[in-house]
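Case study 2.
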Amino acid sequence: MCNLYRMTKNADEVAKWFDAVNQMGGANFGAEVYPGYPGAVIESGNLRQMTWGFPLVMKGKSGQPLKPKPVNNARTDKLDSFFWRYSFEQRRCLIPLTAWAEAEGPKGRKTRSWLSLPDSELFACAAVWRESDEWGPAYSMVMTDAAGVAAQVHTRMPVILAPEKYAQWTEGSPDDARTLCRPWEGELSLDRTDQPWSGGASRATLL
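Prediction:
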């Protein structure tokens, strides 16, 4: 499950990399993105800012509304569920990133392990998005079974897309897109650090 990723390029660089129209203007995003925070996505050929995570409406024991939780990861085997179905069928997008992190170590002393593509400064993961009353446009990262070195740190990993598959994910039929929901077969780099795992990850939800 991915609860933290890194994006170290600015908006103009990302737009140029993906041949997209920069709709963010001069605004940029944080180098590290947590669930519930703004991030950049490529949607319909445009670079846009959205909130990472679909809002999950929560209620207290007395029925009072609680602050929504961001559902930031969508499992590939759950894409036909009501929560994800229409977004998967109608609103697929790309998440530009330079690396994603997983937590390793004993409880209370977990550290960050970063994964990336060894020969690429920037790559894209599959995502879905929708409009929400709570946060406006929101997106969620699509997750599949982990493979390669990613399986050393977690059972799941993002659906990484090769550049020649971007259009198939964003513009293809649901059946075409579904064939891409598989583990990455290329090389991955794993960087285990002593940086403490902290931040907004505890707010994340996987459906």
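The chain is about 10% helix and 45% strand.
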